[in-house]
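Most newcomers find our protein records easier to grasp once they have seen one. Each record describes a single protein and holds just a pair of labelled lines. A learned vocabulary of local backbone shapes supplies the integers on the structure line. Nothing more is needed to start thinking about how sequence determines fold. The record below serves as our worked example for the rest of this section.
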Amino acid sequence: MPTLAQLFSIFGQTASALEVSGVTHDSRLVQPGSVFVAIPGVPLPSRRPSDGHDYIAQALEKGAVAIVGMRDLKLGVPYLRVSDSRAALADLSAAFWGYPAQKLELLGITGSKGKTTVAALAHHLLQAAHPPVGRLSTVGIQIGAEELSLPGHFTTPEAPQVQEMLHRCVVAGCKQAVLEVSSHALALERVRGIEYTVGIFTNLYEDHLDLHGSMENYFAEKCKLLERSRFAIVNSDNEWTRPLGDRPQTWIYGSRGDWQVQNLVESTTGLHFEVISPTGRFPVQVPLVGRFNADNALAAMAATARMGLSVEQIQAGLAGFPGVPGRMQLIQSQPFRAIVDFAHTGASLQAALETLRPTTQNRLVVVIGAAGNQDPSRRTGIGKTAGQLADFAIFTEEDHRSESLEVILHTMAQAHRDPHRYVLIPDRLEAIHYAVAQAQPGDTLLFAGKGHERTLERGTEIIPWNEVEEVRKALRDVK
């Protein structure tokens, strides 16, 4: 274990040789010997932020041996005042875990849509060719074949967890790791100090403006990943990412890219197409639903080729891809189709519904909610999109947290506008059973918004949740 003197030395401060057992910003996770870093909460229009400084007393009671914060305080233990405690949390976490990012070839992926699928594809390709390979993403953590999970709904966890997981990758013998990197992680210093062998920027659409304030700020935060990458992979078909293709050490993918799809065919077994690339022209097949996933596969192929994979390794890896949990996951195909997907914004719901419409024989029905304490425009976008593209919508709960579920549902209903084509069922389990009970042959039921997540935040209560299993139970009950 490092000593307090070693950790504080990165700030040019002297301290005792007392051994440190951990670094955390969460007073609930403090153990005897921990350094507690008090970080201010994120101010959002939808909620009043908490402040880590208010939990210093609790951290001390649980055995913290030193405190880092941004206020002028006098405490009975060593206290380090810093100008930015989020940056300090990242620096201390990296130092405590021995700077594991420096011991790995890292592939970083950011963007508004597609980054989870790209991360899963890229990890699968690298893992199939050169195991073990690590992955930190929305759908969980994987170190080689071992799957782990962290509490909460984070694309990218806070710096202590990021650094610990990278350390565990190193200990497990990984030489490479894939990181899905959110704009929150970049703006809030969760991945501070991490550099990437390859960075992917998939696209940019309106989202998270409650944090960033404008699309320009949102874009600037995403660009940080490419600034920290030795080589970049960017989308030629998105208005925000297209200009990034002019930078050196960059491959672009899409209709005007270095990597292109030709002769795309959708079938019951997935996608079949030819790839035109700097490594040559070759055919691939990948068991994914939706034409848009061809672009996600392109991004993963380009990145892993840059990281050393051959065409043959890429072809074999894609053919054996098991899919992404909770991402267009097919649960049942007959007599009606049931699919679980993570679509939780207007844009992602639009993509999901447009993907399913051509292969839907009868009605296209969506079960969806909107999260509380998030950008309020999300619920309006979801309601409007459901009204335009689904034959019927069942609006229900989705992590409403401290906000009124009734208000959220009413907002979505107003945006939908046609009361004959939606129903409000606040309890998500009841909504799932209602959808299954009302289904007709040839229908497609899309259960959207929760996807892979393993908890449901109902007010202040956090309950275990598995959308796929609940849908399967409902299907069994109807049979």
The first helix runs from residue 4 to 8. The mean pLDDT is 93.
